[in-house]
Fold this protein.
Amino acid sequence: MRPRLPEELVASTTFLLKRLGFSAKEQAMKAYEQTGLHPYHHAILIVLAEGSRETQGAIADALGYDRGQLVGLLDELEERDLVERRRDPSDRRRHLVRLTPDGEKMLRRLRTLSAEIEDGFLSPLSDKERATLHGLLFRLAEEHDPRCGPIGAPGLTV
Amino acid sequence: MRPRLPEELVASTTFLLKRLGFSAKEQAMKAYEQTGLHPYHHAILIVLAEGSRETQGAIADALGYDRGQLVGLLDELEERDLVERRRDPSDRRRHLVRLTPDGEKMLRRLRTLSAEIEDGFLSPLSDKERATLHGLLFRLAEEHDPRCGPIGAPGLTV
DNA sequence: CAAAATCGTTGACGAGATCAACTATACAGC
DNA sequence: GCTGTATAGTTGATCTCGTCAACGATTTTG
């Protein structure tokens, strides 16, 4: 028999948010193991695929990562030939980071994976309910980060 | 100017969940600083106030805390005379933990605080929308923890 | 009475985030 | 053109926090 969760906690929306947020993260990390990559890596690939942000600083800022942290993540991606670093000829302090063809292929795979995870996670809800939920969460997110700024929090990834 | 968040991320409900969950946790921790207590402490006081769960093992299981972790948290609560540990006479391995009068007073204060935090966090939503959101999250939580089991995840607190 | 299980406690360990240098390069002002 | 200052990426130290294994005291089982 399992201990019950105090009702006072379950009654709190922010509690449920924390709980579900963590649970979603955990599930995602588990699922990503099969790829040998971390959700962090996925987020980086997404930013690169968007174009416009090519230097490490821009990537780090876009995702709210520490720049030192990003170095290691990019090392791992480069190790697997998913991205490519080269000096910016116009400013030799910078590195321009680019997706390789393998990187784009991997990104497609990760997109499918993440869609499956999301679908599974939301399985108890109908399509309409999912849309409602997303709308409400989006409005909260806007409010708490009105600038649509960086992720700005550790562990927040795809 | 702030970097924009990739739309691909914002389009994902689980991403928003992770983001908001973390944000809620961060805000709560900030707000709790004024009390000298951690949300973890609040969760413990809630469990104690419920009655029925008095031994350290039961408390830890109810909240999904590691038992070793709980020891330190209870030490801090006892230090401030908010709870009281005494040996269970019928099983001298156990400790029975009880709220003190000061503990109950503190719990009332924490409840107010946490209600304020929640109210602020949900401020962009109407009452009706808040109810809808809570309902949807609750159904997800049920699904992902059908037994209404322990919190089972680090960092999940009030 | 002996062996195994349980409770609280302690301490070691590892993952992960934060922060402070350091090198190389660019730029601004004199 | 120098010189000082700022920036990009890198590295390494540090701190926090959750996990895990061991231990002494006690109870339960056989």
Summary: Residues 146-155 of chain A have pLDDT under 50 and may be disordered. Residues 55-57, 67-68, 70-71, 88, 91-95 of chain A lie near DNA strand D (CB under 10 Å from a C1'). Helices of chain A lie at 7-10, 13-32, 39-49, 56-63, 67-79, 101-121, 127-144. Residues 31-144 of chain A form a domain with the Arc Repressor Mutant, subunit A fold (CATH 1.10.10.10).
